[in-house]
Records
---
Amino acid sequence: MTNTLILIQCPDKLGLVVLISGIVARQQLNIVVMREFVDHDSAQFFTRIECSGTNTHPETLKKAFKDQLGPEAFVRVGPYPSDKRIAVLVTKEYHCLGDILVKHFFGVLGAEVCCVVGNHDVLTSFTRRFSIPFYHVSTEEKSKQAFEEEVLQILNQYNPDYLVLAKFMRILSPEFLARYPNRVINIHHSFLPAFAGAHPYRRAFERGVKLIGATAHFVTPELDAGPIISQQTIKIDHTYTVAQMVEAGQEVEKTVLSRALKLVARDQVFISGNKTIVFE
Amino acid sequence: MTNTLILIQCPDKLGLVVLISGIVARQQLNIVVMREFVDHDSAQFFTRIECSGTNTHPETLKKAFKDQLGPEAFVRVGPYPSDKRIAVLVTKEYHCLGDILVKHFFGVLGAEVCCVVGNHDVLTSFTRRFSIPFYHVSTEEKSKQAFEEEVLQILNQYNPDYLVLAKFMRILSPEFLARYPNRVINIHHSFLPAFAGAHPYRRAFERGVKLIGATAHFVTPELDAGPIISQQTIKIDHTYTVAQMVEAGQEVEKTVLSRALKLVARDQVFISGNKTIVFE
Amino acid sequence: MTNTLILIQCPDKLGLVVLISGIVARQQLNIVVMREFVDHDSAQFFTRIECSGTNTHPETLKKAFKDQLGPEAFVRVGPYPSDKRIAVLVTKEYHCLGDILVKHFFGVLGAEVCCVVGNHDVLTSFTRRFSIPFYHVSTEEKSKQAFEEEVLQILNQYNPDYLVLAKFMRILSPEFLARYPNRVINIHHSFLPAFAGAHPYRRAFERGVKLIGATAHFVTPELDAGPIISQQTIKIDHTYTVAQMVEAGQEVEKTVLSRALKLVARDQVFISGNKTIVFE
Amino acid sequence: MTNTLILIQCPDKLGLVVLISGIVARQQLNIVVMREFVDHDSAQFFTRIECSGTNTHPETLKKAFKDQLGPEAFVRVGPYPSDKRIAVLVTKEYHCLGDILVKHFFGVLGAEVCCVVGNHDVLTSFTRRFSIPFYHVSTEEKSKQAFEEEVLQILNQYNPDYLVLAKFMRILSPEFLARYPNRVINIHHSFLPAFAGAHPYRRAFERGVKLIGATAHFVTPELDAGPIISQQTIKIDHTYTVAQMVEAGQEVEKTVLSRALKLVARDQVFISGNKTIVFE
């Protein structure tokens, strides 16, 4: 059954819950789940409301909110659930892509995988077994700009809502990111902010940590510093080699990215400055 | 600063959020945190609302809700935070009591410990070091009824809101429990419903489980079957003896009971049939 | 690089470590990892020794141990790593099979998947995309015995070391299990011994637990009562419907079964009565 | 019952297990638990052996090992268990001290708390309730050197094996640390190496992490960079204020420090360069 989903972000003020829920009620929509949060630092109010039924046109509902909340308010209204379109960028590692494609195949990803782009070609056969287009864009003998331009041209054909960096081991330029603002999701193989940057498992090994982890986050121009969506750690011990950390870590990376994608696909994530608000 | 806390449980119907938040708004109270949940099985609506300020008399506010929601509605309004009074029942194990008394001593329990009652006397000296009255009520040479009567007489002096069974190893009669309905909290040393009843660690050892855990729950006449508030497990392995399980388990028991007490002290727990709704 | 793996189980006695490590040293093998455990209840000694190099013939080494340890000792010697052959039994759920086939495709399962047998056919296309034979054996219009006979005939062609029940929702008869003693691994969707048997998520929902989990175990004739290899739980709350528990639980089931298969594939698991000894 | 504990660290070479276990066997000691590890980076071998009985004099046994292993080997032999003496340094926070003193009171710490030293006096009454001496050494109106000298003079009276920094919020000088090399244990309120230094919860809040944690480590002159003994994280979300992170974090700090102390008290921890080897 399709419901109606309402997402609102606006400056906080007295009486917002009654104002907003009143508008919903006057449209004869029944609230199934309503979550709200006030970020006191930014004085912003965030709410996510699932309503049963779709008897009001989204544009009508949106207008009703905008009229009351003013032009500063961000309002999104639409049917729910509603699959997002994602494009996946990969390098050589298979595990995050594998999880995504298997879930997609069985219709439980909550998102439509439109294509996979790799800067290596090792995942071509795997991807195509799932009848998903795979594009190999080599980084060799071309500038970073040329590489990114080539990737963007492929992506443009598909008009994805989100780019998922499923162990894509290249740093994207600010110019590239500006094309998908707040719409690029990365999985980093450490519990950020620890071990931002290259070789986190090697550095975890050298530091002798007793935990390793993974972080899914939105990508911003500053490396591994964007808003965090989900994180998890697992226990390791002194017997772990770097290779064993990589192997154990892959399970966590897969789980964390999968969790983040589900949250984003279900519109449970707001971005507020450099943080996320996740209505779980 | 003192806020106002509103707890409501009532039959679910269309428009409850707008109705309730409207009443709050008309009383000039600003919502700090509002959480709601509909239990579709029982068709009950639950909400917990923290409002800043205390400018409305609780009874006035309560009447406003009752007028609108009808006599079936459960409504509680009061200042927040507001320490609950608890009495702790123990046998011989120190760890849960220790955690409670240390937190109480430093004013972070969120509850007032009025007394400790033990069916053994081994925790007397420890309790008194914290200037808390300790009562030893032996079970020897008396009926269960006589024992419980003696305990009740002590408790009556203190009028506690909740009884906390901090590893109290006696089963309380339905008659006793009827005196504190939904107000007795127990910590059981297993992840219920596994290993309900006696000797859970011994049985966990014999079963060869790879996890042990603890469960905090409200006590009902059926043994270890009341509404669960909080649970946690930890990993063990084949090298654990029963004694090592007990030792490792005590840390979890302490953590889980502590968590449950905090949730109850802050009125974050509703009971709905044999389940809890926990607004974390 | 191939090493030599030595697995020994024998009655415990004084000096076993020096005796066994002496034999290893006399064969000019260097111990990479040695783990040992004494089960005091059964008075059995267990050891797992990885040695670098393969300069001694396995049979020679095995004879050396048997000569010293006596006929009661179980001794296995062989190259390491050495892929086990597994057959996977499924019903309709995709997630455990998906994880196994993806890992197998990329050569990181540590086991060779020889075939998949399903009592439904919904996973046929998925399995074949990985170039693995899929056999559909319906249970309809035939006795349980006839069904199992049909499955056994298929399995006989492949001579698997282990059968993996990857959400195979049929109970296997003692006669069937006797054909693969200690060689059938199941994933059960609860933290056993809680919710053994059918519909664990439904029962977890009804009980109002705050944790759900999964258990990988060897299958014995008594339902869900065999030696546990691995278990894990995750936190849930009152907002979870049964369907949401199923969805969240699938991630745990996948992780736990994957972990158990890796441990078994690497010969890190001994069975001792109704328990496992897992040298992690 | 008292056993014999043997700790050995020496350069790795072929046949060490048989050599060492042979010496144990010739002394008529039966191995209860033997754990060993080779750090391939440093080519060092580490072993921890618990033997039943104490029929050999520790010095005789130690000499037997030194004769065979050479002067480079570190060898320690002694009765087991054998309580370590610890001194606890605190500032204002009660929670880690509380856990230590309660466990000490009930004889389960595995260590003897000889005194508590605070640079503030707020924990005086609490400590004395447990009949443990408390020394208040103010940092005001004196140099860091003078402060540390005063602390050292107090500690000298007690001759502790380990100093435990139970939320001691001063940085100790290299000169101070040189007096207790590898014998100062700190609890840091983050999952190091994330948020080393001051105000980790504030910085965790600003970074928007979804996990917070704690790390117990040996103290070296470089701040928060010494060998890690134990770490743990817990999940948080966007609703946590800094104060709520502090509160939730305290539970983890307590658990992690408690775990580290137990491991150290039982001689389960070796230091190897900037890492620990923990035989759990």
---
Amino acid sequence: MSLIVAISGSPSTPSRSGALANHVADDLRNRGFELASITVRDLPAGELLTGRTSDPTIAAAIALVERADALVIATPIYKASYTGVLKAFLDLLPQLAFTGKVVLPLVTGGTIAHVLALDYALRPVLVSLGAQHIVNGLFVLDKALAVSERGLALDADVEKRLAGIVDDFAGSVLRRATATGVLRTTP
Amino acid sequence: MSLIVAISGSPSTPSRSGALANHVADDLRNRGFELASITVRDLPAGELLTGRTSDPTIAAAIALVERADALVIATPIYKASYTGVLKAFLDLLPQLAFTGKVVLPLVTGGTIAHVLALDYALRPVLVSLGAQHIVNGLFVLDKALAVSERGLALDADVEKRLAGIVDDFAGSVLRRATATGVLRTTP
Amino acid sequence: MSLIVAISGSPSTPSRSGALANHVADDLRNRGFELASITVRDLPAGELLTGRTSDPTIAAAIALVERADALVIATPIYKASYTGVLKAFLDLLPQLAFTGKVVLPLVTGGTIAHVLALDYALRPVLVSLGAQHIVNGLFVLDKALAVSERGLALDADVEKRLAGIVDDFAGSVLRRATATGVLRTTP
Amino acid sequence: MSLIVAISGSPSTPSRSGALANHVADDLRNRGFELASITVRDLPAGELLTGRTSDPTIAAAIALVERADALVIATPIYKASYTGVLKAFLDLLPQLAFTGKVVLPLVTGGTIAHVLALDYALRPVLVSLGAQHIVNGLFVLDKALAVSERGLALDADVEKRLAGIVDDFAGSVLRRATATGVLRTTP
């Protein structure tokens, strides 16, 4: 069973991008994948900002990324790019930490004017980490996402596009598992 | 007298990019500018990562940026981009916090392969903050920079290129001061 | 009197971005600048595509860029970036052809989703050409621009923002002329 | 049998990036794929620059891209980005012309300082065309590539990295063929 780790890089809580990542994680868990998650803002802040990778909580988060077969990476767009919080965590990873992994980027933003930040800002960083396949991600407008105690409500068209993207991601993770022979039996 | 604020975004100490920023700040101070500096890794980490701009230290740093006529922004390149530490601070600034300001970007990296990160990753973020003029910055290879207790030693050709860039920046800050009528008398 | 050259990179005619460049050129001429223009689609196509810079028409266009004190560069956004037509001309220029020049980028697009292409795609290319100052440019939605025989009609808010941007550009060109001592007397 | 189309975007001939694309095409043909190629500089120049997609030669090139299961896209880096020649052809394609296709980007440059142009400049354009999977491409230094009448000679380490990249690309094309059920019998 492939392990998928969802990384949420929002500095705020509740967070639209975090809720979106959880929503996708639930969907993937229902499809039989093993899921784990990292919320960067909950990591020890001083250790994160000064790069102390020996801290046990941070070391565990890095090890989780290394064990993962695939990653969901969620961030809001601030100042035309991903958040500093997300990047602070990515900065702690080994240079080619994403080697052999499939990555699904999920991005939220207040205006459609930010949409290219996914491909011009976030994707090059993910590529530099050696990702084997970064599938086409999704940009979701803040107003198409409502977060409440009962979970996430998405506009119908976003829900539909998201389903297609998660299908594509899940298929890519499964093909990778087959190709690399790491397919384990589901319990 | 124009106020120039140097922002250092390295997570480590001592830091090559931080030493470079200090070196440029000393040069600018000698030219008669008022200088102040912000080392992001020294700000309260938990408050920074969770966006608590009401924290007095963070609020003071933001206010310093707003008062500045010009900024020196220094970062190493990690994972094909600026650091998360730097971006975490920029994320806390008002949307157009750099309006009317002149900005000098200074970037260090372990290999010349990272040089385009200045213009493809950092500059678009600085533009999004509304900077009036982002002068041509400098990328310095780690090996051309030696940091010791006696300060920074730069390779001769880097020193020369840096001098030209600081000249250009200082000239732009002075022209801006004249143009906007904010030129104050030097003490 | 400073020479400003407007370069239009649209493959089609009539062209919204070309009309926008002409509109800005007229404004600048009225302010006392000397203006010239290059419409890339009108250059000899075979020579352009195969880099024959010895062709007299192409050589004249390159010489015009080199003589310019400042440039207006206009392109629509296609496929998340500037046009191939524009880039084909920029490819023929000497490596640092924009050294010492002030540049105003003008971009048009069918959707606001393309707006970051100005800063993530076009600006890095202009920086690589050595531009001394690339002022904040303008992205204009196709629907805010009507081109007819009587010229260009712009939405009122675009007209207003454009005026501010042209003011900033003109000021920068004049300051540059003063600073470099190339200010010539206007006839 | 999957059809792979190699697109070469160099304005010059002989061309290092073009020779690299041919080299990879030969390798892929030997693996049993059907290969075709488009050299943009050989298309009718005037029609290309003015977007006349009704021209029979250009229409045939566009149709070839649409029929392709996968693409090899080769360009030198000029002025911190792909060539205008390449982009002029991409500009003529339908908005999502790469939907469902696997893409291998190959880039050559005179200095390692250009390497990030692959991921910051070219990849976002390929993503905007809807590519299903853009595999990790290769940046090759001009001096690691010798083009002569007997073909292409590559430095040994480049040859080795290229082989790994072509393996990955071929594997992705085959998995795509299986997944989408378009696997046709080899003759």
